[in-house]
Design brief:
This protein is α/β, with parallel strands linked by helices and about 550 residues long. It is built from 13 helices and 21 strands. It starts with 5 loop residues before the first helix and ends with a helix. About 55% of the residues are buried. The N terminus is likely disordered. Bound molecules: flavin-N7 protonated-adenine dinucleotide (FAE). The site of flavin-N7 protonated-adenine dinucleotide has 39 residues, from α3, β7, β10, α10 and α13. Flavin-N7 protonated-adenine dinucleotide (FAE) binds next to α3, β7, β10, α10 and α13. Keywords: Cholesterol metabolism, FAD, Flavoprotein, Isomerase, Lipid metabolism, Oxidoreductase, Steroid metabolism, Sterol metabolism.
Length: about 550
């Protein structure tokens, strides 16, 4: 994969995405890709009254694995995705906007951006935007904002692509009921292959301007005696080299991340979902949101779906039936649906574990102010490639993160994953008709303390201080958010040891909701590997 022109991708991807309101005329297309596009683009989105063998709610990691493997086993699959297809360029010729000029495409149904890093030099940087079904959802609960991807590809559209397998010795704490030998021999390798994971060329790392910030991170980590590690990623590293050489259109080197990458990143649209499409058995309805699942008799389930327009209004409500339903709406999406359905009587037999065991993967962010002789570079790749591992001694794994402002900031910026053991619970709030999460802001203090085991030491060694201008006015810690929601329908508690929901044969959870709150590293490789393990078992024994 050398270049990724958005328009040709748009054509081939649209082939399997039904009912998304394409703007390119089909008559203008030619060749085999066009034939496939015409064939499937003619397929409408899911119809009211339809019956499908397998319905997958959500198109992130868990959903994409389920769809591909079911289709390969000969099962027709319909995927329902509340976000947009992200297959059609805007008037600027790009599908996605960048972090420097966030526009209507950036946020899910907000009228003002909510950047994770929302201040710079002490000034707020958020701006007004039109309300639109944009790509990044900053979902507010009382004590935390949970960032999630919205659209075909789920979190893979917005994330940094860091594809990390937990250390073997930590696995028992990640998924205590899962056989580690099987995971490390079979399912982690399968997930890494399916996702297209690769690692930066160390020689290029040492010479390229765009990772000056990472090299400063390495120097400071090593001078304080911390292990520095390269972090694998799904970004196409050869493509990034060409970006640096100026021979292809820039993405990672043009501030693209969070609101999508127009090039270079192997999102699920290019990996699992592309393979799923190639089977001819998978259809996706974008801008469709599942609101209910209930037994229909005869072993089937009734699924109620709202079709949305781009301002988030429901234009049609459809009722379909399915033999099997896979909840893959992400930790928050799946948990919210299940908690609501149990409380409102649609799925009353779901057990008392549903909604419990939710964690933030210990996420906390901070910046450090370097001396003038340690510039971090005005050109920074948006794709992090390295981390500082102090998990065993201090409970923190800190990624050296970019601050791609386009100017020299002398800032080192970090996202730490910490061993925070607080777990929150989702519950139905009958008075608001919404699902609440009881996470408390104060629960981030252990994460801050663990991150400090790294950065207090580095600051002492380097004679430097924390930045106080990135998260507010004189605020050091980005402790208000997570990128890594996990849990809410925990494996072997809310479900059996393969994701089968207790009480309802044919209903499965297959996403990050299964993982009890922490993966010790970035989560999507573990979500993918667990989905590979579970769907293999389900296909072998349930179908
Ligand atoms: P997810 O990918 O969230 O997919 C769920 C899908 O379901 C979404 O497309 C939703 O729109 C859709 N959905 C939800 N509710 C409904 C409904 N009712 N009806 C229809 N559709 C629905 O779930 N992880 C890493 O490992 N490495 C990283 O570098 C990394 N960076 C991140 C950066 C950012 C900014 C963010 C937000 C996340 C990052 N993550 C990273 C986390 C990672 O993306 C996340 O763990 C996975 O995407 C979760 O996968 P799931 O399959 O659980």
């Amino acid at each position: 994969m050398r270049d990724h022109p958005p328009v040709s991708n748009a054509v081939s991807r649209r082939g399997f995405i039904a009912g998304t309101g394409s703007i390119l005329g089909m008559a203008a297309l030619a060749g085999p890709a066009a034939a496939q596009a015409r064939r499937v683009a003619a397929a409408p989105p899911i119809a009211n009254g339809a019956h499908v063998p397998a319905l997958v709610i959500g198109t992130g990691y868990g959903g994409s694995v389920a769809a591909l493997r079911l289709a390969q086993a000969g099962v027709d699959v319909h995927m329902i995705e509340m976000g947009m297809a992200w297959d059609t360029p805007g008037s600027d010729g790009k599908i996605f906007c960048n972090t420097r000029e966030p526009d209507y495409r950036s946020y899910w149904l907000r009228t003002r951006t909510k950047a994770p890093l929302n201040y710079f030099l002490g000034f707020p940087i958020d701006r007004d935007i039109p309300r639109y079904t944009g790509i990044l959802d900053a979902e507010d609960f009382s004590g935390i904002t949970v960032y999630q991807g919205r659209g075909v590809g789920g979190g893979s559209l917005v994330n940094g692509g860091m594809a990390v397998t937990p250390k073997r010795e930590n696995f028992a704490s990640v998924l205590p009921s899962v056989n580690a030998d099987e995971m490390y021999a079979t399912y982690y390798p399968r997930a890494n292959a399916g996702l297209g994971v690769g690692t930066i060329d160390p020689a290029w790392f040492d010479s390229t301007a765009c990772y000056q910030y990472s090299r400063v991170g390495r120097k400071h980590a090593q001078r304080s005696g911390f292990p520095f590690v390269f972090v694998p990623d799904v970004y196409d590293w050869d493509y990034m080299k060409q970006e640096a050489a100026g021979t292809v259109t820039k993405s990672a080197l043009a501030g693209e991340i969070l609101y999508g990458n127009n090039h270079g990143k192997k999102s699920l649209q290019r990996t699992y979902l592309a393979q799923a499409r190639a089977t001819g058995r998978v259809t996706i309805s974008a801008l469709h949101q599942v609101t209910s699942v209930a037994p229909a008799g005869g072993g089937r389930y009734t699924v109620v779906i709202d079709q949305l327009n781009t301002t988030g209004d429901t234009t049609t409500t459809k009722t379909v039936t399915a033999d099997r339903v896979f909840f893959a709406a992400g930790s928050v999406g799946t948990s919210k649906l299940l908690v609501k359905l149990r409380a409102t009587g649609a799925l009353p037999a779901l057990n008392g574990e549903v909604g419990k065991g939710w964690g933030d993967n210990g996420n906390v962010m901070c910046g450090r102010a370097n001396h003038l002789w340690d510039p971090t570079g005005s050109l920074q790749s948006t794709i992090p490639c390295s981390g500082i591992d102090n998990w065993a001694a201090g409970g923190a794994f800190a990624e050296v993160a970019p601050l791609p402002t386009g100017i020299e900031t002398w800032a080192s910026f970090y996202l730490s994953i910490t061993n925070n053991t607080h777990r929150a619970q989702f519950s139905w709030n009958a008075s608001t008709g919404k699902v609440d999460l009881n996470w408390q802001l104060a629960w981030k203090q252990p994460s801050i303390d663990m991150a400090k085991t790294i950065f207090d030491k580095i600051n002492a060694k380097e004679g430097t201080i924390y930045r106080t201008d990135l998260f507010g006015i004189y605020k050091i810690w980005g402790d208000h958010l997570t990128y890594h929601p996990l849990g809410g329908a925990v494996l072997n508690k809310a479900t059996d040891n393969y994701g089968r929901l207790a009480g309802y044969p044919g209903l499965y959870v297959i996403d990050g909701a299964l993982i009890p709150g922490n993966t010790t590293v970035n989560p999507f490789v573990t979500i993918t590997a667990l989905a590979e393990r579970n769907i293999e078992k389900i296909i072998a024994t349930d179908l």
